[in-house]
Design a protein that fits this description.
By secondary structure, the chain is of the alpha/beta class. It is 50% helix and 12% strand. The chain contains 16 helices and ten strands. The strands form two sheets. A six-stranded parallel β-sheet has the order 7-6-5-8-9-10, with helices on both faces. A four-stranded parallel β-sheet has the order 1-2-3-4, with helices on both faces. The longest helix is centred in the middle third of the chain and has 24 residues. It is globular and about 65 Å long. About 2% of the residues have low confidence.
Length: 363
């Protein structure tokens, strides 16, 4: 919400980012177990509901939301992420006239579709497929009932084909900068994969590195190593990493940017998920060349082969890693991507886009 404040708007946050009494009341009003159980039952019998609804928004939460709306004259209401779709239903039912901007961030249904495609178990494939179709239907309802629907990625906006959608790319904080020698020749390259290792798409990607990529890479270059940075991670994953000769588990760190800056190449082989992968933007902001899956790269504005290297198979990743053993190639990819980052993902760009959005919905 910093972009809105910089445009001169006063912003009231109704979730944990702010510690005032209203926000605390809102955050403390999470649904009870009974409410969540009823929500799951309702979703089980209604094709117009998803199992995600009701888990994050309960009756008390709706009361606090309506109280704020009716007591204050707002220019616009901004709902962020699919999890708050129940508040949109509440606003519609209460006939609230204030323009509603729904920032879906990414296409949740695309995430579920990809998880279904990559699931090896039949039940999981079916469950994610059915839920994904329900969510997609609800996302289209969101577009119809909102004044504007936002996404961070053009890929997600096109997936849902919404007429009133608007893309606002994530913006990157450039405060952290550390000069590093991009032309330095190194014998022992270090590759990093970072993120929440308990998040299913990240866990799948980590297992891919450990089980498929690392063993093949070791036969070609035993000096190269893979490092896993981030909180979480099931014991089975950590154990697999520890047993691998060229994989190292770093885990949670106090300063993620400082830790990631130590590595030579960043890898993002996630096939599930949607939107824009933060790990890609964070790595590019540190001038670290990125190798990503087609699914991850397509959620960014980086040009394949020029600003980001795209891979589909373990062999593709290996070829791209070997390509980046050249200091000049690492420098070229990193610097071209960084220039694109400054043009597309800067706070200034975000402010300009929000100015347009607010002008459209409040004029």
């Amino acid at each position: 919400m910093t972009a809105l404040e910089s445009l001169g708007y006063s912003v009231d946050l109704l979730y944990p980012e702010k510690s005032d009494s209203t926000s605390n009341e809102f955050h403390a009003s999470r649904p009870s177990f009974g409410e969540m159980f009823f929500s799951v039952l309702r979703a089980a019998v209604s094709p117009d509901r998803s199992f995600q609804e009701g888990i994050f928004v309960g009756k008390n939460c709706k009361k606090v939301f309506l109280k704020c709306i009716f007591e204050t004259s707002y220019d616009a209401i901004i709902l962020v992420t699919f999890r708050l779709v129940e508040l949109l239903r509440t606003a519609i039912k209460s006939q609230i006239a204030t323009p509603i901007i729904f920032d879906l961030v990414d296409a949740f249904s695309l995430n579920y579709q990809r998880i279904a495609q990559n699931s090896k178990k039949s039940f999981a494939k079916l469950a994610y497929s059915v839920e994904g179709k329900r969510i997609r239907k609800i996302e289209k309802m969101v577009a119809q009932k909102s004044s504007k629907t936002l996404f961070v990625s053009l890929k997600d906006a096109r997936f849902l084909k919404m007429k009133n959608s608007f893309v606002v790319p994530l913006n990157v904080n450039f405060d952290y900068r550390e000069e590093k020698s991009l032309s330095e020749k190194k014998d022992n390259l270090k590759v990093v994969f970072h993120g929440n290792l308990s998040y299913k798409p990240n866990e799948e990607a980590a297992f891919f590195i450990v089980n498929e990529l690392a063993p093949k890479m070791e036969k070609l270059d035993s000096s190269l190593s893979f490092h896993f940075v981030g909180r979480g991670g099931r014991k089975i994953l950590i154990s697999a990493i520890d047993k691998s000769k060229n994989c190292h588990f770093i885990g949670e760190v106090s300063d993620i940017m400082n830790e990631v800056s130590k590595y030579d190449i960043s890898i993002c082989p996630t096939k599930s998920g949607a939107g824009t992968q933060n790990k890609i933007l964070e790595s590019v902001s540190l001038k670290i060349p990125v190798i990503a899956s087609d699914e991850s790269a397509s959620g960014t504005y980086f040009i394949p082969s020029k600003e980001i290297l795209v891979s589909r198979t373990a062999e593709d990743y290996i070829n791209n890693i070997l390509f980046l053993k050249s200091p000049l190639q690492r420098k070229g990819i990193a610097e071209r991507a960084f220039k694109k980052l400054e043009r597309v993902y800067s706070p200034e760009v975000t402010e300009k886009l929000w100015r347009i959005i607010l002008h459209d919905v409040t004029k």
